[in-house]
Here is the input.
Amino acid sequence: MIWIPITLVATGLQVARNALQRGLLADAGTWGASLVRFLFGLPFSLFFVTIAWFTTPAARLQFSAGFLIACAIGGTAQMLATAAMLVSMRRSSFALGTVFQQSGIPLAAILGLVFGEQLGVLKWIGLAIATIGLMWLGWPRGREKDWSAAGLGLLAGAGFALAGNAFRQASIGLAHSEPVLTAQVTVFFVQAMQSAALVVWMGVTDRQALYVAVTSWRSSILAGFFGAAASGLWFTAFAMAPVGLVRAVGVSEMPIAALAGRRLFREQLSVWQILAAAITAVGVGLAALG
Here is the structure.
């Protein structure tokens, strides 16, 4: 059960990374803000791989084409999900954007079935309750029926669900008995692919945003560190437990994100939003502990 505290630490680091990326949106744009977590996280990922390698000298990794394919699929899904999440945050709020992308919880559990992972009845009930809470939270209020923030959050959740399962398969394929090492190696390969793809894409389509992302080095370095550390812990948890359960425990970032949104971006949540988030949290608790 050590994957639970690992996930809890990962959620705190993830909120910090998301906040730094959100702050870069205005100047660097969606793709520039997405790039910093991958490009500036790469040196830290290499450092974490080195530490993990020296602490497990007897480990034998089995690289294969399947590993690279899983990394590419997961990395692409994660890039698209990150961009969708950041736009969702801009169109709603930092806290709500964080909650919306938690739609990846039931989607991750369902995708896990494809890989032969089974969940008990109580866990499915919890996932259903969490889904209801998310739907309530995302339902538009007032005269303007703007579904874009919730829709982008759902897209982000789907992307993160696919990415999580792909990363789990990649890590397990390397060495099933060395989750910490395989997680760090997978993070490094994925971030290298993502950095190369985004640099080439932005170099062709938006050099100004690329320049801003690279030169905003203070925020970018911090985002890279928090991103690499969070990803390393997430990937370790994915290698130890089904992605649906890991993502369920990861919803603990919701209250952290709400506090961060209030302190950093002066955002407020209404009573019904807090209630919907609480219902979601109950569902998550059942999914994680059932």
Notes: The first helix runs from residue 3 to 39. The chain has one domain: 3-289. Residues 3-289 form one domain.
